[in-house]
Amino acid sequence: MNIQRKYSLPNCTLLLEGFTDVTKNVNYQEFRPELSILVNAECYLSSYTQPISGGREFFESLVRAVSGYAQEVFSNVPNPQAHNEDSGIVQLQQLDSNKHRLIIHGEITPTNNQSNAEAISEIAIDLNTVQLFDLVEAIDQFFADSQTLPELSLELHPVIRNYGGTSELLMKQAVPFTVGLSTLAVAAFAFTLVPPPKIQHQNVQEDQSSTKNTAVTPTNTPTTSENPKIEDLEALIKTVPQITDRNKIEELRRRVYNQIDPVWKNRSEVTEDIVYRLGVSADGSIVGYKAINQKANDLVNQTPLPSLLYNPVNRVANEPLAQFKVVFKKEGVLDVSSWGEYNTQNSNQNSNKPIREKIKDAILVKELQEKLSQSIRQNWSARPTFDKDLKYRVAVNKDGVISFYEPLHQDAFKYLADVPLKHMLSPANTPTGNNKEPLAHFKVVFSPKGDLEVTNWNGGD
Amino acid sequence: MNVSASVPPLNSPNSDNIPTILDSLPDPEITEQLCPSRTRTQIDLMLLAIEALELTGSEAILSFAEELDLKGIIKNRVNLWQMRSSNPLRRAYIRRPLTVLEAKALVVITCYITRRLTVLIRQLLTIYQQLAEKQIPPEQNLRLATYLERFRAHFKSRMNPRRSGALSLTSDEKLDELAIDLLGKLLFCTGTAGMQRYWISLFDGEVE
Q: Chain B closest CA to A121's CA: distance in Å?
């Protein structure tokens, strides 16, 4: 059933077309059924001859940018939502107190179906304050309509104190009309902030676009059709504060590991290392990821990342983020590290050091090594069922309590239940603890014959 | 006939004296729930613009306080004057804090008054736009000129020139610019979510 919703103001008409999600809505006989799958959004502005239109990604970007800018009109404090320069499809800029420029990158289908190169364009529409208000009001009426995309609701937050200065700089750097092509090319490369919609959505979208040439963005690259909700993680990272506390980062690193590792199923599908860059909020939620190599882009659905993403619609604006490099290794082992450690451009004096301090006292390390060896032996009662050596990296605190461990290859992961490490992990040392104490790192090898080897870890995993 | 027992509402534990009309405005994360100076200035200037739009503006504020059941917060004329004098730009600036509750009440009233003035505000902004496009000075239009003139007069009589000078509000042109800027903000107050948007924006850059 095709549903249309229209929000009409003197200078702006917003027209949404979509469907009811029958799997979600049981009582679709109701008088005004819920529009839950957006197929096409059109916005008619009195100062522009044609409607601007696009799919859900365009519409979300539009409502976010306009909503953020409306707040900026009130306070004159730059709002990060309005100036998402690198990848936001829609941006707004103030030209003077009564003139506002709406910029739409790519993602628009000109009404006469042109070639792709021409379609990737940029449109700038100047609005006066009354016209801008009508656009804001149309969007607010949409927000207030609980029967149309109810998951998109008005979320207002004050801009945090630090944002002002940096954004002024960003605004100065903004040169309209030069960003176009390259931005789109980057954006198309799977920057994802929202789980890919169900297959059903995609079919609906594709059907629609084939019958109606003005409807949906030409999703020419396979990557975009796989991940219709694409946003630039880097742009997001730029506009929000970074989490810099190294202990916090280490805590989050382990949380990320613990989120992904248990739910990574198809380990054998990964035939070469695939690498992602993740944005993670202070509560450990994965708010965005970006495929770093092509294979990572192709195999994203083999990883648990899409299902672990936290829906940004409900996200707090300006939430600080930490970035991580996540490698799904071909050996079936997961590796999570702080992004800064690998990003040589950002390398500072600490970049190659472990985040948590190492125990330096050689005598203590020796003691801990023996202690660890003993306690593993005591706890290791099962007869080995594996036929290859199992290798792990294990970190202990000064009391010899295991703080974390990492399997170093696929078998080590597979036979984790056969070795006692899991049970020996101190619950107090799980990632929630704000632990600053230094650790000693060891390589632990279990052999099929029942031998145990604990040696000093000398890096280089 | 509505039969109702006098059971206090379950979901509002602090319903002692706080009018429900303020519920839609969340408490900002600021210290001691006292408004920062930019917030105080902005609230007062928006009311000043309303007074420039209609001569009975200050009366309207008080009558709306009554109508919206906010008399518990804005008690009388003196009380209102004291709240507005928490704007550091004022000649009569008194070092009196403005509580979040008082600010909410003033914001709600501002938005209710502007809704009534929607047509006038839209017209004035449209006229301003049209004149600007033809590069005709705004004084050429009587209604717009009246608004700008009144705003300048109110501003000059009530604001401390030394303090407003610090914000480079020295010339008539600058004051006209401010008046138009405030007019645009008043228009945004008239919208469906205008009250929430205005309220949240008052704390932009003030929260950590």
A: 28
Q: Name residues of chain B where pLDDT drops below 50.
A: 1-15
Distance from C-alpha of A226 to C-alpha of A201, rounded to nearest angstrom: 11
Q: How many CB atoms lie within 10 A of CB A27?
A: 7
Banded pLDDT at A425 (limits 50, 70, 90): confident
Phi/psi at A181 (nearest 5 deg)? -55, -55
Distance from CA of B15 to the nearest CA of A (A): 24
Taking CB atoms and an 8 Å limit, are B205 and A144 in contact across chains? no
Main-chain dihedrals φ then ψ at residue B186, nearest 5 degrees = -60, -35
The number of CA neighbours under 13 Å toward the Cβ of B193 is 26
Helices (H), chain B: 37-53, 57-67, 77-84, 100-116, 118-133, 142-158, 161-166, 172-189, 194-201
Within 10 angstroms of residue B166's Cβ, the number of other Cβ atoms is: 12
Q: Comparing C-alpha atoms, which of A343, A339, A350, A447 is closest to residue A391?
A: A447
- All residues of chain A having their beta carbon less than 8 Å from the beta carbon of residue B188 are 70, 73-74, 133, 136
User: Per the CB < 8 Å rule, is A97 touching B192?
Assistant: no
Q: Which residues contact A178 (CB under 8 A, 6 or more apart)?
A: none
pTM (2 d.p.): 0.55
Give how far Cα A315 sits from Cα of A211, A322, A359, B145, Å. Answer: 35, 15, 39, 45
**Residue for token pair 């409900």:** A314
* Residue showing tokens 């550091």: B88
Q: Give the per-residue pLDDT at A388.
A: 86
Give chain B positions within 8 Å (CB) of A136: 188, 191
| The pair of three-digit structure tokens given for residue A443, joined into one six-digit string | 């390589």
Question: Would you give the end-to-end CA distance of chain B in angstroms?
Answer: 51
One-letter identity of residue A274: I
DSSP string covering B99-122, please? BHHHHHHHHHHHHHHHHHTHHHHH
Return the SS3 of A418: helix
With CB atoms and an 8 Å threshold, state whether B177 touches A97: yes
